[in-house]
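Because discrete structure vocabularies remain unfamiliar, it helps to consider an illustrative case, giving the amino acid sequence and backbone structure tokens:
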Amino acid sequence: MRLSRFQPDSFPLKVLHFDHQSTIDVHEHVFHELVLVVAGEGRHVTPAEEYTLSAGDIFLIKPGNPHGYEVEHDFSLFNILYEPERLNLPLFDLADEPGYRAFFELEPELRRQFGFRKHFRLGKSQLDELTLLVERMKFETESEEAGHRFRAVALFMRLFERIARVFSSSTLFRENDELFRLSEVVSYLEQHLTETMTVAGLAERAAMSPATLNRAFRRTVGKSPMNYLNDLRISEAELLLLRKPSLPIAEVAAECGFDDSNYFSRLFKKRTGCTPRSFRQRNSN
């Protein structure tokens, strides 16, 4: 069964607190669910496995991943439900933090495919800090005072930053060799997207063979490193086409890391369904 929490015109951020909750059957949903266990013990159930949860556990469930909960001892958790496309948070340089990419993008996919016998657990002071943030978010999302949505999103961004920082320094992240290396590669690609790249060069940076990097990247990200890089470049080109409407297409291609403007145009049409020139004309009106 697929559940949907948000209506099209609703605020795409909601905080739910389940205190000593009863068992929730396995289900799916179309939003992201950030889970913070604050007390007690329970079990997280997926079609592939079950594992014990306790205070301090924090993890992300992406859309389309069936899961449920079984209560054991005074189980209490917060569910932060959100739709990132509609929130459109300004990440700025948070994406450069290895823990951000690892926790919010790579780790959920690895856990979905292989299961995690070990998962991220906060220390007592970290749990107290994040619980306070989430409680304040919950208050703001339920408030009707002017500015409450702004305050809720500001707190949510602060929560993202703290999770990324804490995860970067966690033993789980540092000891998960593949997760750490892939996160470093993703961050490098995003910071150097206009530079000449080769799989061999990226593999050397990740201390992997090119074949191992390709397999790990496809398994976790869903595409090869070079396809991921091209997607980044096309996204940058879309912005540049609109920000600099008089810039020739060949120069747009060059500024986004493409040596061949004809190849750029073909790839742009393949990824977006229209040529760069048509995209600019369509979105300038």
About this structure: Residues 148-168 form the longest helix (21 residues). The domain at 2-172 is CATH 2.60.120.280 (Jelly Rolls). The radius of gyration is 21 Å.
